[in-house]
User: Fold Adenosine 5'-phosphosulfate reductase from Magnetospirillum aberrantis SpK.
Amino acid sequence: MILDTLARLDGKALIAATVHAFPGRVAVTSSFGAESAVLLDLVAQVDPALPVIFLDTGELFDETLDYRYALERRLGLSHVVVVRPTESERTEAGDLWRTDPDRCCHLRKVLPLARAVAGYDVLIDGRKRAHGFGRDALPTVQVSGAVIKVSPLATWSEQQVEAAFAARSLPRHPLVGQGYRSVGCWPCTRPTKPGEPARAGRWAGSAKTECGIHTVPLGTAKDQ
Assistant:
């Protein structure tokens, strides 16, 4: 079975094999966050015209928006698709991040992504087991609702990620130098303290660890 074959690969080899196995039916999802350059560099080496879906929630750091353009130019990515919540979703979301962050993420991320990925069979993402918080056993290939999710860097350690940045002279997200090891929306992201996991600065002080785009099976997301 093709998925079993893909599951034995990782990194660039997994991306290339996935694109070959599902021609015209693969997209990449990227936050253009702290470690995104590593995955996007591998994608660009395989096919710089592969669709890269970027969720602009309306609450991103200005530095993230600037970084997106910098990486797009540097890597030669020619098909970045910017996805945003509708006006009604933005209005309802308002400042729900203060009182109901799950609903805020649902409106700003889950629903827009569900619309954007319609028509794709495979989504490539940059999740890693090293991030912890429920990702410790993340497979490189998994079925999620109506799509197949491929995580080429799932097994990569922090050291491997750092080595890729160095080997390819990849630019860093501007906020990494300020202690942000994972970058999401500005109201719900803080710098990571020494010794904390990379994603400890996301929704700090709450039990929330995921926005929902990787936990709600795609093809099943709907407004509530």
